[in-house]
Structures are given as C-alpha cells and as structure tokens.
Amino acid sequence: MPVFQADSHRDIPAPHRSGETLFITSTRGEALGPCPGSRGHVCCNYFTVDVYMGCSLGCSYCIMKSYLNFEPVTVYADTGPPIARIRELAAANPGRLVRVGSGETGDSLQLDPVFELSGEFIRGLADLPNVVFEAKTKTDFVGHLLGIPEKGRAVIAFSLNARSVSGAEEEYAAGLDERLSAARRAVDAGYRTAFHFDPIMAFPGWEAAYGEVVDALAAFPADRVAWISLGTFRYPGALKDRIGRRPYLFDEFVPCRDGKFRYLQRRRGRVYRWFLDRIRAVCDAPVYLCMESADMWRKVYGRSALANPRTRGLFQALKSSGHPAGEEKHCGENLPRTARIDTDKG
Predict the structure, then answer these.
(1) 265 by DSSP, 3-state: which?
(2) Closest Cα partner for 232 from 33, 41, 36?
C-alpha cells in the first residue's frame, strides 16, 4: 500500500481517496459532539466522538455513502482531547448519565486491534461513575479489550440483523453467531453489552427471521445488557443512487420530516410493537427507538421517551447540550423544517 505524508485529505492523490486508504491524523475542531440525530425526531441525548471515520465492511445500506463521499478511512489517533472533553461534561453533570459512543461515523472495532484506541477511552473514563462509553461494532474483534482491568461502565455493543440480511447486505462483517459469541466473551470479561437492531428490514417473513435473533438474547444475563435500540430501515434521497437495485428498496416508503424515507408509520408501529413484546419475553433491558417521532413513541409505548421509566435516564438532556435538563428534545428542533412533510406524520 502506498504511503503519503499529508496534512489533510486534499493532500492525498485523488486515485487513493477511497476506502482502501488509511488517513491517520489528530482530532481537529470539536472533540465531542451531540448525535446529529434526525430533524423532528426524538433525540436520546447521546454524544459521539470520531475515532474511526469511514468503514470498509461493505454494508449495502450504509448511510455514510451519502455524505462521506468515499474519502479514505480516517483514524483520529490522539484520544487526549475527546477524553478531556468527556471528563468536563461528566463533571458538569454529576448524577446524570453521560452516554458517549464512537460508532457514529465508523465501526468502533474494525481497526481497533491495530490502533487500540477504544482501550484508551475505556481506561481514561473508568473512574467516572456517570459516564458510559460505548464501542459499537459489526465485527467480533473484542479480544484486545478483554484484559483491561478497570472497565468502568464501558459497553461493547453489537449491531444485529436477521441472518439473511447480514449474509446478503453486510459483506465483510462478522456473521451473527460470531457477533453473539463476541458479546458473550465481553460479558464474561466483565463488560456490559448492548444490541442495536438497525436497520430492521420488513421483508416477507421478517418475524421468523428476527425472532431467531431476539430469542438468542435470552443467553445474556439481564443486568449485563445495558440497552437495546430499534430502528427500521430509512434512507436519505442521496443514498438511493449509491445503493443500487437492492431488493429492500422495492417497498413502500414515504418522505418524513427529516427528509429521509421510511416505511409507513402504521407499519413501523407494528414492527416496533412486535420487537418490544418479543424482547420483553427474553430480556429485561431498556428498549428504545432510534430516530423516531414522539408520536411513534406514544403509539408503541403509550407514553413519551421521558415519561417512560425504562428510558427516562437515557433521554435526559445534559447541561452543556443547550437544552434544559429533563426536556424531551427533538433532534434538529432549531433547524428549518424540510419542505416535504410525511403525510403519515413521520
């Protein structure tokens, strides 16, 4: 692989600006930011830190294809500034949960056995009782983290999907059995784990396909599962051209408040209620909806995110987030609304 000395992506020759090139740099700009969320939808007040930006696991539906423009995979090797910023945020919010994750713009663990940056976050935050650092992955690369003695409240999380979806649409990701095995190894080593069913594909026979995956969660002690999130397949218009003619696109979608296309609200509600009932039968962890409207929350749970005792702690705003503590924030609520509004109300 060619090696270039570069100060920015622009200094890398154009033919090498792709997912096959690694760009190693230090943190620039804000070290920590609120999850960008989705305009007009309930936000869980999650904070994100860019450790790895870009991914080469080859998931066909990856939303990063619509905004990263196939730049090199970037490694932000200096963990000092984001760790310091997280510690400041924790100090400003004693007694309130600070959730921080590194899997927003890239897989948290795909390159981590080489660079070992997740371990620096785990060790650097282990003494803070109100901080949860989440490393989210579709790999089974957990071995390098298992021997860390002080884990604090760190969570090693796994994105899960139906076996048929993983096999057809997540080209280089670990298989379902490998991910679940890695989750068990993490739990046995003293970590908590979490699971993210996102994107849920509502294809014919989805109940049986996802039922197998949900039932496998019964093998995990309830107190070792930090949370489970649910999100149905959605996409911005810019992504559709990059996806190609994938079978899951030949379905009925409507434009929503944030400009993304989703299944009809009634259909999403049925999917979420099925998942919630099935999960509750095997696991007592908090279950929340990702990038969904307050209306959808009420349809699924009968109450809002903050009124739900199982998710209230996850959704409380922090002082430095710019929203009063306890307010049910909608992602991007101060931004202009998109011109097209889902007639199904998102």
Answers:
(1) helix
(2) 41
Residues in contact with 190: Cβ distance below 8 Å, sequence separation at least 6, in sequence order: 151
Three-state DSSP state, 153: coil
- pLDDT, residue 301, reads 92
Q: What is the DSSP letter of 130?
A: T
Judge whether residue 11 has pLDDT over 50: yes
- Phi/psi of residue 308, nearest 5 degrees: -85, 115
Per-residue pLDDT at 315: 77
Q: Which amino acid is at 297?
A: W
308 is written with which tokens? 């739900």
Q: Tokens 């969660």 map to which residue?
A: 217
Tokens of 255: 């434009």
Cα 36 off chain centre by: 11
Q: What 8-state DSSP symbol labels residue 145?
A: G
As a whole number of angstroms, the distance between CA 189 and CA 155 comes to 12
Judged by average pLDDT, the poorest of 110-114, 155-159, 267-271, 296-300 is 296-300
Neighbours of 340 (CB within 10 A): 12
Pick the closest to residue 161 from 265, 57, 77 (CA basis): 57
Nearest to 157 by CA among 102, 117, 234, 199: 102
Comparing 32-46, 73-87, 285-299, the range with the smallest average pLDDT is 32-46
Q: What is the CATH number of domain 19-331?
A: 3.80.30.30
Band (pLDDT 50/70/90 cuts) for residue 44 is: confident
138, with CB counted inside 10 A (0-12, 13-18, 19+), is buried
Pairing of strands 234-236, 47-48: unpaired
CB 304 within 8 A of CB 328: yes
Structure tokens at 328: 């049910």
